[in-house]
Amino acid sequence: MKITEIKGGVTAAKGFEAAAAAAAIKYQGRTDMALVYSEKPCHAAGTFTTNIVKAAPVKWDQKIVKESPYAQAVIVNSGIANACTGEEGMGYCKETAEEAAKVLGVPENAVLVASTGVIGMQLPMDRLKKGISLLKEAKGSTLEHGTAASKAIMTTDTVNKEIAVQVELGGKTVTVGGMCKGSGMIHPNMCTMLAFVTTDANISKEMLQKCVSADVKDTFNMISVDGDTSTNDTLLVLANGMAENPEITEENEDYKAFAKALNTVNTWLAKKMAGDGEGATALFEVKIVGAESKEQAVILSKSVVTSSLVKAAIYGHDANWGRILCAMGYSGAQFDPEKVELFFESAAGKIQIIENGVAVNYSEEEATKILSEPEVTAIADVKMGHATATAWGCDLTYDYVKINADYRS
């Protein structure tokens, strides 16, 4: 199957529109609300935060995804998270859905909502409702409309994040496009992210949810910036069927091709979030190879990518391999440290650091050069089998503390 990347985001698939609006929810002088809309009803799937403290929009969306036959619109605001806001916060979700239903002409239970920003603040509903009207006036299906939406959902992100790909299913060209935001409070188990993926694929609700739930394990659940699992993590996938491919109702070849396309989009978005971690200067990738099971490889890779000491060493371009071996050692996964091989790799080259658990005679200067690139990979071979896993994170810098010390002010 051939997956082709094209220019675009959430408006790339047939029938989807998007918009951005400046509603002054918290920020001044920038857009802070976004709309994703489909001209036809969509099957919806989603995955959400594992944090016990769940924001009101998460609870609302979980119910819509589970119980509503279809969805047609997503209303997003940045600046205020609508988390830890009690019954009032749930009321805001209902008010938002009611207003969007009235303005957009869709059922209330077809409206999904999402929020990101400061926890504990109440939403200014008068501004948010006005913003919904502004979104309707601004919505369109061009690339620019999708890009505007991707910028409106940013908080501490330094760049917007959007991608689109195409794949052929049953003789029809199917498009999958997505956008996301996420920079801080990001940790495996869905991270502090909002991600929205749209597709014109014709796929049943059951198979869409199955595909999304399976894929998130290898994409969004494999990234970390700071070890904090957010209250608002949401991935929503909308499929409107407008590509008119034969409906996917089982795990056939078309399902596998669609899953590959979705994985391409989600992996790209996940890596962009990890690389745009608050204050980050480098995307840090950790590959575990030669594991005896996928579970072991996942545990080891996550342990390394979340280690503050390892992340600090990456920031300092320091091949401090002992920290990586140490992080693997306390992960809880069993392996023989005296069999481990470790390599560093980037656009500047590849270098072996340890063999059978002991340092080889490598050049510190060459290692530093390799670790000075904006994307750096550590590869650890535990020599126990053929399973692999990859996790993504970023370096830990002074700016991370600066950004989060005054986030509310």
From TrEMBL:
- Which lineage do the record's taxonomy fields give for this organism? Bacteria, Bacillati, Bacillota, Clostridia, Lachnospirales
Compartment annotation: Cytoplasm
**Species name for this entry?**
Anaerosacchariphilus hominis
Family, per the entry?
Answer: Belongs to the ArgJ family.
Q: What class of enzyme is it?
A: transferase
Q: Some GO term, biological process aspect, for this entry: which one?
A: ornithine biosynthetic process
SUPFAM superfamilies the record matches: DmpA/ArgJ-like
So which residues are the signal peptide here? none
Which chemical reaction does it catalyze?
A: L-glutamate + acetyl-CoA = N-acetyl-L-glutamate + CoA + H(+); N(2)-acetyl-L-ornithine + L-glutamate = N-acetyl-L-glutamate + L-ornithine
Q: Which domain of life is it from?
A: Bacteria
Q: What is this protein called?
A: Arginine biosynthesis bifunctional protein ArgJ
